[in-house]
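go over this chain:
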Amino acid sequence: MKKALIFQGGWDGHTPLETSLEYKKMLEPHDFEVTIVDDLNYLNDYENLLQFDLIVPMWTMGEISGVQRDNVSRAVQSGIGLAGCHGGMCDSFRMDTEWQFMTGSQWVAHPGNDGTPYMVNLIPGNEFTEGLEDFKVESEQYYIHVDPCVKVYATTTFPVADGPHAANGEVKVPVVYTKMWGKGRVFYTSLGHTYKIFDIPEARTIMTRGLLWAAK
């Protein structure tokens, strides 16, 4: 049996607990024992982190200590997977550039805010999007600043909502990507403003596949 650690908290608007419980539902049918904690102090013990096959952040904003961040980073470098969604992983600790370096991007804007209708365009020929088709969501359309080394599996096209960014014309921004951090696999999807996004079958399938991929 594999083990997954989910640490949840931060801004309540991203439904951290409810989203964490959705992650648990995705993992348990695949023979995972899932631990959910709501205290970053759990990350202070590096040796304890090594018991897990997968670490899943679901913590928006807030502050992480250097020790806690370094412990997660070292664990992932050693081969433990890291996977997350939306602001739960890539808007977790805005002041920590090392966290952003590890996770591969940082949220900077969502023009139109929640309820913006937009398309998720899938890149075919990979294990995350196989058998799926492009789909529409009504949520926050995440504009993220992205590590150039990531491998992208789905995108969305800006602008949909108007704003000063629209003067640049159309641009594709990643929605699903992976990268490596040492020996560890990192998976991210910008979908997930609330847990209800996973009522969409395509979004749920991609997230589930990403969790399993990161955990090898």
About this structure: The chain has one domain: 2-214. The first helix runs from residue 16 to 27.
